[in-house]
Design brief:
Elements lengths: L14 E6 L7 H10 L6 E7 L3 H12 L4 E5 L5 H8 L7 E6 L8 H12 L3 E8 L9 E4 L2 E8 L2 E8 L6 H4 L6 E2 L7 E5 H7 L10 H12 L4 E9 L1
Parallel strand pairs: 1-2, 1-4, 2-3, 5-11
Antiparallel strand pairs: 4-10, 5-6, 5-10, 7-8, 9-11
Length: 237
């Protein structure tokens, strides 16, 4: 683990990092370490642990609480939306950075997301999301670099179209093409949300699991007039 964040920094934090479980726990300790090591901007953290094995839970609790952050455990498994909803009443910052428990980060990721939100007024900001072994970061393929989310209606009902930008393209060969722009959707692997937007669209639906949770949030945000931006200079995997 890196040197601990100074607890005094919490007082100036404009963002709360909310960590929720995805479908596994074996990378949770590595991901938490990567977050602390690569996040320089002041932040608060609320770590929601839904049923991780006890040895992992012990480490997570220690590393979160020794830095003055909040650790909440439920012994049973939680859907990601259940976990996020547990954290929401405790958030008192301008922004929320939702992250999964198996992500690694390039330095400056959070500062860059906040800068984009400040400059654009966006309700949601999505980073460049890569996929692959952490040891190869950032020499990986792109998983999500913005994307398309459209719903079309006709006499037979509604059809949803969703496509990730630059998916499966090699990041190092493609990054010069990536530009900040308004986009249609996000991924919950890492996404920055404006708290005012979350307050407006309400808590997350705990019945939605997998990719449907982020689609629901994007559609709800857009219905309320909030913009979604893609910020290429924030990079996670």
């Amino acid at each position: 683990m890196a040197e601990m964040n100074n607890p005094v920094d919490h007082l100036s934090a404009r963002v709360t990092i909310v960590v929720s479980p995805r479908e596994r726990f074996e990378q949770a300790e590595m991901s938490l370490a990567a977050c602390f090591e690569n996040t320089s901007t002041p932040f608060k953290m609320i770590y929601i642990d839904g049923g991780s094995p006890r040895p992992i839970a012990k480490t997570l609790k220690h590393e979160v609480e020794i830095r003055g952050h909040t650790y909440i455990r439920r012994n049973g498994f939680l859907t990601p939306n259940d976990a996020r909803n547990l954290a929401l009443p405790l958030v008192d910052t301008d922004y929320i950075a939702f992250i999964d428990n198996d992500v690694v980060f390039q330095p400056g990721w959070l500062d860059t997301l906040i800068k984009c939100a400040d400059e654009t007024g966006a309700g949601l900001v999505t980073p460049t999301i890569l996929v692959g072994p952490a040891a190869r970061m950032p020499d990986l393929s792109i998983h999500h670099a913005g994307g398309i989310l459209e719903v079309e209606s006709d006499d037979t009902g509604k059809t949803l179209y969703r496509r990730h930008g630059y998916e499966h393209q090699p990041y190092l060969a493609t990054r010069d093409q990536l530009k900040r722009q308004e986009t249609g959707c996000t991924e919950f692997h890492v996404v920055l949300a404006r708290k005012a937007m979350i307050d407006e669209i309400g808590p997350f639906d705990p019945k939605l699991v997998g990719f449907t949770d982020e689609i629901d949030m994007a559609l709800a945000a857009r219905a309320k007039g909030w913009k979604i931006f893609y910020e290429p200079d924030a990079v996670v995997a």
